[in-house]
Write a structure and sequence with these properties.
Layout: H1 3-15, H2 22-38, H3 40-51, H4 55-81, E1 84-86, E2 95-103, E3 106-110, H5 118-129, E4 133-137, H6 143-156, E5 162-164, H7 169-176, E6 182-186, H8 189-200, E7 206-209, E8 215-218, H9 224-236, E9 248-252, H10 256-270, H11 286-293, E10 301-303, E11 307-308, E12 313-314, E13 317-319, E14 337-343, H12 346-354, E15 361-365, H13 369-378, E16 383-386, E17 407-408, H14 413-419, E18 421-429, H15 436-439, H16 445-457
Parallel strand pairs: 3-4, 3-6, 4-5, 6-7, 8-9, 8-15, 9-14, 13-14, 15-16
Antiparallel strand pairs: 1-2, 2-18, 7-17, 10-13, 11-12
Length: about 450
């Protein structure tokens, strides 16, 4: 079945109305949960080959989130699908108004390689929960996880409902030449622009989950030990290959050395210097390895700096004495390098952040409510945390999404259901009363006065 035939088959199946049935959606989500759990070892083996990602880390940062998303959707799908009553203004009396969720139709979901399971399967779960069909293309950069998902999903579900299509850039390009009813893309900004351009030709709505240079601002009144722990964990999780990871630290000059020493201590205790561990993995391929290494000024390495191309290993590396003019600050790092820039004037630091495109995430460490409110209101970003990193991603009740060049739209939990749903606005009006005389000519000044009150005030 070629692409055109696959899309046509899914459109015919969608138009049959089968996926609109809530019972059908619940059954499919339960089936997805069942087949994923049954093939968990296959997924663990595949991701280790691609990324050297451990069983522990794969469960905590990938599969647990996937299972939780299914569970959360199953608990809430009936309430999310109900009519959402809204108020009706007086000019429309007597009537009632509500919003009614409906699926878009045939969706295209493009996943990313850095968290290949959760960044591909969570939007799929949201799409199916909302009643859509789905064509899924995992990233070819992680070929074994792509093959694992293709085997699991294509064996369990009919192609006219849900299908994984494998392939590289040419496959993605060919898919985007066709009309979909919704497109969900996770990846880099440059490819995101191409997806958006292709979608525009068909006026297809799009969610883009991209990235950016995520700042972590460390104030002089922070808890240094706790800040160091959470910065180190959030940055070096997944070997820094995390879209919501802190990309660089802005630390007040008065505590820079204390923070650096505290991070060094944490790294010595918990992270490997020369090999892979339970919470550490490989760089995905030589291309990304070379790109990351090219950003390093070896004279500025404070900690780490072990680079092994044969094993695609880069140790957790802290770069100090960094400036905004350094090469490492010219692009998103997406690797285990952490530049540290000191500041003395907070307003100047904020001004520097504003010169970058709006980031996907922002993190702030300190104890001043006034400064917290100032920064969270002055700076634009997708989402973030106060005195933590990354973990906001795991909150079902917080949408994940970027702003500007870090993305558009959001998902996770209820927001994921909303993303893959169109909300029809409906007003049901009674027939026992009609203010016909106010609507029709001849127009009189007294009519205008009444209408002004009804339309402007009530």
């Amino acid at each position: 079945m070629n692409t055109a035939e696959l899309i046509s088959a899914q459109r015919i199946f969608f138009e049959s109305g089968t996926t609109r049935n809530i019972g059908f959606r619940i059954a499919q989500l339960k089936k997805l949960d069942q087949v994923l759990r049954a093939n968990e070892q296959l997924m663990l083996d595949a991701i280790y080959v691609d990324l050297k990602k451990s069983r522990f880390d794969t469960f905590t940062s990938e599969l647990s989130l996937v299972y939780r998303e299914i569970s959360y959707c199953l608990k809430n799908i009936r309430s999310w699908s109900k009519k959402q009553r809204v108020k009706t203004n007086l000019v429309n009396f007597p009537s009632r108004s509500y919003k009614l969720a409906e699926p878009f139709g045939v969706t295209y979901i493009a996943g990313a390689w850095n968290y290949p399971y959760q960044l591909t399967l969570i939007p799929l779960i949201d799409a199916l929960a909302a009643g859509n069909t789905a064509i899924v293309k995992p990233s070819e950069v992680a070929p074994n996880t792509s093959a694992a998902m293709a085997f699991i999903i294509n064996t369990a579900f009919p192609a006219e409902y849900c299908r994984v299509v494998e392939g590289g850039a040419e496959t993605a390009k060919e898919l985007l030449e066709h009309r979909f009813d919704y497109i969900f893309f996770t990846g880099g900004t440059s490819i995101g622009k191409k997806v958006y351009e292709a979608a525009a030709k068909h006026l297809t709505p799009v969610t883009l989950e991209l990235g950016g240079k995520n700042p972590a601002i460390v104030l002089p009144d922070c808890d240094i030990e706790t800040s160091a722990k959470r910065l180190v964990w959030g940055k070096f999780l997944n070997a820094g290959q995390t879209c919501v990871a802190p990309d660089y630290i802005l630390v007040h000059a008065s505590i820079e050395h204390q923070l650096l020493d505290a991070m060094k201590k944490i790294l010595d205790q918990h992270f490997p210097k020369n090999g892979f561990g339970e919470n550490y993995m490989a760089i995905v391929n030589e291309k990304h390895f070379d790109r990351i290494i090219s950003l390093v000024d070896k004279k500025k390495i404070f900690y780490g700096g072990v680079f092994d191309k044969q094993r695609l290993f880069i140790s957790p590396t802290i770069i100090h004495h960094s400036t905004f003019d350094d090469a490492i600050m010219k692009e998103e790092i997406f690797g285990p390098l952490l530049p540290v820039i000191q500041y003395e004037n907070l307003d100047e630091a904020i001004s520097k952040i504003k010169q970058f495109p709006k980031p996907l995430s922002l993190y702030l460490f300190g104890s001043s409510d006034d400064i917290k409110e100032k920064i969270f209101h002055e700076l634009s970003f997708g989402g973030g945390s106060y005195n933590d990193t990354v973990m906001y991603f795991a909150n079902d009740h917080l949408p994940l999404g970027g702003v500007g060049s870090s993305g558009m739209g959001s998902y996770h939990g209820a927001e994921g259901f909303k993303t893959f749903s169109h909300y029809k606005s409906i007003m049901e009006k009674a027939t026992w009363l009609e203010f016909w005389f106010l609507k029709t000519p001849p127009y009189k000044e007294w009519k205008l006065k009444i209408l002004r009150l009804l339309l402007e005030k009530w």
